[in-house]
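Researcher: I'm preparing a figure for a lab meeting and need a structural model of a single chain. I don't have an experimental structure, so a prediction will have to do for now. The sequence is pasted below. Please return the structure as tokens so I can convert it later.
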Amino acid sequence: MTGREMDPLPGAAVAAASEAEADEEADPPAADLPTPQVIERRDPDPNRMQMPQGNPLLLSLTLQELLARDTVQVELIPEKKGLFLKHVEYEVSSQRFKSSVYRRYNDFVVFHEALLHKFPYRMVPALPPKRMLGADREFIEARRRALKRFINLVARHPPFSEDVILKLFLSFSGSDVQSKLKESAQCVGDEFMNCKLATRAKDFLPADIQTQFAVSRELIRNIYNSFYKLRDRAERIASRAIDNAADLLIFGKELSALGSDTTPLPSWATLNSSTWGSLKQALKGLSVEFALLADKAAQQGKQEENDVVEKLNLFLDLLQSYKDLCERHEKGVLHKHQRALHKYSLMKRQMMSAAVQNREPESVEQLESRIVEQENAIQTMELRNYFSLYCLHQETQLIHVYLPLTSHILGAFVNSQIQGHKEMSKVWNELKPKLSCLFAGPHSVLTPPRSPQEDGVYPH
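Model: Understood. Here is the structure written out token by token.
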């Protein structure tokens, strides 16, 4: 998308023709940019792909409006249908459609392919990897979370949210959802063939579109790298809280075990003192407080996983989908356009050679016909190229609409730390008076241990 990566495009544009005409003898189209079936351009369904009011290039959306479009929950079906059987099923529930349907991973795959087919110039989030041999509960839970992020990003995406294919996936309860999804995607062609603005996309693009996208792509690449590192640190912080919970629990159990020790003490060792018995009695009851501390630490870790790590992962998934879109643009429509131009140049040279060699009129006429077809196909590629840039411009705006999510993430992180430390501090403070017998001196006066600094162990 930089000036180096994209050649200047001719300005002429006529009605769309099939991409197949542009590439009779060339390589097949890129696999990551599905080529729609050749059908007539039709007026779009009145419920989708409407012509926007005002400047159609601009997105007048806020983050709150995006998030309010829908909230989709993805939960594992109870174990009776099998975490360890052949297939894992998910219950997918949509607030917007007030629906609850059962889906398998392969249903998500078909839905993802249908989205790419209908919206090749939009940010389609990637799916998590397929099941691997020996997949355990941890893998299955990680994939459930990833599928939830995927479907929520899709359900809140402006064009996707208004398309019938999303409603099918979230509300169709029949047994053949995959067939329905494929049929819906294949019978109408892609967004270019159904959008009234497709042939006019160039009119709405800024003159320096390539420079703008070069800058935007670099910015988003840098944001992605920074958020990737933030996500890793957040994962480590949450993991430490959970590890701390396990350590506190074991610490309390060991104190309790020490207090429950029944080994008799010889009288010559105790010297008629009841100190050890009092200490044991105090130690025995401490496991309850340490179990409570462990529970608070575990809650904090889980909260940070859900409210901080998952939101960072959601934003990273969105940024990755933008990077994937840029790559599809370059490997798909841009590459096909450049390839069509090259083929057109070869055909023109053949035409000139045929004229010089005074070939049969029929042969020259056939070649002329092919050149006209190729010119129409190139013009179609130009239209698609501009429409791809038009969509990229909107998708870049969508990324910036999501950027305030950063403040939500930081707020969740700070609140988690404040709440977690506040609750644990309360338990620690309640625990301290219960240690009075541990600090009892020879005359039953409380003498808590002094700090190393108070004892002069550490120099000032």
